[in-house]
Write the structure tokens for this entry.
Amino acid sequence: MQHHQDHEQIVARVERWAESVVIGLNLCPFASGALRRGQLNIVVADDKTAELCLQQMADEADDLLDGDQQATTLFVLPEGFENFDDYLDLLALGEALLEDIGLEGELQLASFHPQYQFDDTDYDDVENWTNRAPYPILHLLTEVSVADAVDSHPDIDSVPENNIDRLEAMGTEMLEALNRAADG
């Protein structure tokens, strides 16, 4: 029973983060609609080993493709991938797995991690906050939903730059405080 409650707490924390950070700061202009329409699935990994996490992720990928093509899944990894390099290894394996099972071109992965750091940035650079989350997360998106979102946005190329400008205006201290508040 404790396992179920832990999952509920993790899901609640991720929902608060999505609402206050991703949607609240408009980092993803499509997240609000997905949440409002009930198309955001949050699934917590049942295991902390790469092999079993990848199997569960593959199952979630199948479920996503069998359902609403506009839906999206946040696959949360609360244990086993706290180290960013370990997480990046899992991300690479996840992308290879999608290719191996014939889902390349149907699904894509986006990545979030508490210690996220883009290549060629310093750890404290504000742009890293666009991909920081309370837990390591593999975000499964259908290519159909991504294409529809891109086609419907008036200036999709401006989103990353606008995000960085918004975050720079806020500053690291405010971002840290916002993330702490999302922790509940």
